[in-house]
Structure formats: C-alpha cells, structure tokens
UniProtKB/TrEMBL annotation:
Transmembrane segments: none annotated. It comes from the Bacteria. This is Gfo/Idh/MocA family oxidoreductase. The lineage of its organism: Bacteria, Pseudomonadati, Pseudomonadota, Alphaproteobacteria, Hyphomicrobiales. Pfam families: GFO_IDH_MocA, GFO_IDH_MocA_C3. Residues 4-122 form the Gfo/Idh/MocA-like oxidoreductase N-terminal domain. InterPro entries: Gfo/Idh/MocA-like_OxRdtase_N, Gfo/Idh/MocA_oxidoreduct, GFO_IDH_MocA-like_dom, NAD(P)-bd_dom_sf. Residues 135-255 form the GFO/IDH/MocA-like oxidoreductase domain.
Amino acid sequence: MKLRAVLAGCGGMAKGWLRAVEEAPALRDRIEIAGLVDVDEDAARALAEEFGLLAATGCNLPAMLEATSADLLFDVVPPSVRRPVVLSGLEHGCHVLSEKPMATSIEDARFLISAAERAERLHAVVQNRRFISGVRRIRAFLESRALGELTGLHCDFFLAPHFGGFREEMDHPLLLDMAIHTFDAARFMAGKVPLAVYALETNPTGSWYAQGAAASAIFEFSDNVTFTYRGSWCADGAPTSWEAAWRFIGTKGSLIWDGAESFEARVVASEGKFLNDLTPVEVPKASEMEKTHGHASVIAEFLAAIEEGRRPETDGTDNIKSLAMVFAAIESAATQSRVEIRE
C-alpha cells in the first residue's frame, strides 16, 4: 500500500518536493499525495492543478491530517511556523520530513526531538546537499586518506538571489536559511565534530535583505581541523555554485572542488625542495549505487528508515548538530566572541 502524505506549505519550495515524488518511480509508486495545505487555500488549489493531483486542499492542517488518515507530513512551511506544524503531524501519528532549518532555536529543536520520541515517530530534515554525488565522493575520498590526515576545509559561497518574501525580511537569512546546508555538508565530508566558532555577520551596502546577508566564520573541528566559511547573498558578478567552492587540505596534498563537476586533487610527489613536487590524483567517481538525486534521495532514505525501523541519515538527532553550528555562529557574531558549540 502507498503511504498517504499531506504537504503543508504550497509556495515555490513545494514544487521541488512534488517533482521529486513525480519523477522518481521508486517514490511515485510508494507515496500518494493525499492533501495540500496552505494558509492561502488558493495556493493549495493552484499547486494541485499544476501537478494534476487529485489531492484534497485546505487551510486547516489538523483537519486535513484527520480527514486523509495521513501517514506522512511533508513540512515545507516558513521556519517561523515550523514548530506547531511538526507537532500537529506528530500528534496525528505522522512521520514528519521538514524543510531546513529544523527549528528557529536550539530549544525548539530539542523540543521537537523529544516530541518525536514521545510520539514514536520520525522527524527528519531535508538536507539535500548531503545527497549530492560530489559531497558523497569527497567524503569517500577523504576517508581513503588519499590526502593524508585532513587539516582544514575552506569554502566560499557568493550569490545574489532576489527571493522576495520571508527570506528578505527575516533575521540572519544567510546563516539560518542557507549556511545550514554548507555547515552540514562540511561536517559530513570532514567526519569531524564542531567544537567552537568565531563569526562576523554583516549587511553590505546595497543589500536588498533586511539584515545579515553576508557572513564569515572560522570553526574549530575535532582533531585540530579548521573549517572556514565566507558567504554572501548579495554578491553579484562572480557567482559560485549553490554548493559553494571548496578547498580541502591534508598532510599529503589538497583537493579543490568547484561545487559542480570539477575536482582537482594533487599530492606531494617528492620532498626536499623549497616547494615540493606535486602529482595529480583522481577523485573516484560515485558508483551507480552511490549516485544521489537531491530531494528524491532524501525522501527515499526517509521511507527506507520508516520501513527498516531505524533513524534516517538526516534525522533530527543528527541535524541538530549542524543547527548548533548555525546558532553558535549567530551568537558569536552578536557577541563578537568565540563561542563553544553545544547541542
């Protein structure tokens, strides 16, 4: 039998979720979109019509969950209303998959983890960047110790999107709404524990965001590894990819990744000179089994976890570690001090 899903939040982000279900046969055959909910019921109706869905539409989430006997809640609402939406799903017996960020405070994140445990349901987060083939390839490459011991990873994220809506009005839009992806990918690829951060948050001249469109951060990771982040959402002229541009440094060499298809790795070939000789090394491609597809891979892994009775890779109990990096960076920027990272 298909699992019945209700999707809450019918803005632009919801289309990515529905395309993932529609285009992946493994999801299309396992999920029925039974209901669409939005504070603007016209938006729900329009989304159902656009995707040719026979789903019920409405603006009352508890009533929709009850009427559809939903098994799953897809939470695509703005972060400011995430807590009551997730709680409603859990209270109606649903497993819940949320957009990022998981919560707007660490306290709320802890509360949602506890609520999911009490309800004996899963609550996970769509960290779709973790399910990008490049990220998986780099994690495997670093684990192979081809670069020796990892000593540092550094990334640049520079784009200039004009979203309109809540992102341009919210506090900490870059750190809270976007950097969570980058921080989670850094933690995943490095395989290290974030310990502390020093951060600076600014709103550059010409920014169309209300606050915090740019930030820089230096993170201390376990095993003496440093992670640095430089980012802006109002930087026109020389954009990086949405996955950022990365440099990984090890005791034997370095890897540069453009966030897309370019991987350049070189290691020390001979020593004893002022600058050591270097030789290129290949970053192995992902196998067919390891190839991933963003949202579709996250949803598929979530379904597999339900079926197998385990926590999914992006479960709230793991995702809170990346969220803690975000809030520690925000606190550091506000206090102009080094902040230790605690879940």
